[in-house]
Amino acid sequence: MSGRIVELENVDKRYGEVTALADVTLRVDRGEQVVIIGSSGSGKSTLLRCINHLEAVDRGKIAINGATLVETVDGRVKYRREGEIRKLIMQTAMVFQHFNLFGHLTCLDNIAIAPIEIKRENPAEVRERARELLKLVGLEQKAGAYPGQLSGGQKQRVAIARALAIRPSILLFDEPTSALDPEITGEVLKVIRDLAAQGYTMMLVTHEMGFAREVATRAVFMDNGRIIEEGPPGSVFGAPESGRLRLFLKAVIKT
Ligand SMILES: Nc1ncnc2c1ncn2[C@@H]1O[C@H](COP(=O)(O)OP(=O)(O)O)[C@@H](O)[C@H]1O
Ligand SMILES: [Mg+2]
User: Fold this and answer.
1) How far apart, in Å, are the Cα atoms of 155 and each of 125, 158, 163, 219?
2) What confidence tens digit (pLDDT) does each residue in 17-76 have?
3) What residue ranges line ligand 1, CB within 6 angstroms?
C-alpha cells in the first residue's frame, strides 16, 4: 500500500457565488504533519470539510488511502455510493474548534460511540481502548464526567481522544485552540505535539504560528481559496516567496 493518505486534485468548491476552493491540488503522505495557514475566509476549513465529506466538491478528485472518494469525469462530479463513502471517511477524523462533543454522553461514551455504533466493534474492547485514550490525553479521572463539567481545554482533549478512537489514518484539526483561553491552549498543543512526535499523520489549521512552525513537516499557505505557497516550514515561515504570504506573516506575527 502506498504511503499516500490524502490526495486532492484540482478541487473547486463554491458556496453560491463565493469561491471557497479554487483548483486545489495537495497530497499528504503517511507520517506528515501538514499545517495550513491563511487569513480568515481563505478556505482552510472548507479544505478539511471536503476531505471528510462534510461538504461536497464542485470539481476535482479526492482520494483517501488510495481509494477515490470523488472524481470528475467529463465535467461531471461522481461520488462513491453512500455506504462506501461512510467507510472511507471513517479513515479520517476531525477535531473542531468548538469540540462538538455530545453533551448527554459521558466522556467515555463520547469516545466509544463511533467505534461501537458505526464501526460495530466489540463494546467491551472499545471501552477499554477509550480508557487508554483518556489516559493518553491526561483525563483518565474524567471517564464518567459529562462535557458540561469540563473546562474548554479538557473538552478539546476528550475530542482528540474521540478522534483517535476510530483509529483514523489521518487527523484533521480545524483551529483546535481558537476557542480556548490563552492560558489553556498549551495543554491542548502539548497533546497535538506528542501525537506529531509519535508520527501521527495530520493536517492542522491553526493561527498559533510558533506552534505551526515547530510541529509542521510541511506548511501550506492559502489565500482566496487557492494554495499560494507550500514547502518546508523553514521556507514558508522563514523565506516566504509571495507578497501575500509576507503580508500575512507580518500581520499575524506582529499581534
Ligand atoms: N456554509 C457556508 N455557506 C456560505 N459560504 C461559506 C460557508 N462556509 C464557508 N463559506 C465561505 O467560503 C469561504 C471560505 O471559508 P472557510 O473555508 O470557512 O475559510 P477559513 O476556514 O479559512 O476561514 C469564505 O468566503 C466563507 O465566507
Ligand atoms: Mg475556518
Assistant:
1) 23, 5, 12, 27
2) 999 999 999 999 999 999 999 999 999 999 999 999 999 999 999 999 999 999 999 999
3) 15, 18, 20, 38, 40-46
Among the listed residues 69, 50, 57, 48, the one whose alpha carbon sits nearest the alpha carbon of residue 175:
48
Q: What is the per-residue pLDDT across 82-132, written as a single tens digit (0 to 9) for each? A: 999 999 999 999 999 999 999 999 999 999 999 999 889 999 999 999 999
Amino acid at 186: G
Nearest to 6 by CA among 36, 29, 24: 29
Neighbouring C-alpha atoms within 13 Å toward the C-beta of 171:
29
Q: Which ligand number lies closest to the CA of residue 46?
A: 1
Sheet containing 59-64: give its strands across.
Answer: 18-29, 4-15, 59-64, 67-73, 76-79
Q: 89 and 48 in contact (C-beta within 8 Å)? A: no
Instruction: Answer yes or no: are the C-beta atoms of 55 and 13 closer than 8 Å.
Output: yes
Distance 77 CA to ligand 2 centre (A): 25
- Report the C-alpha dihedral over residues 47, 48, 54, 58, rounded to 10 degrees: 20
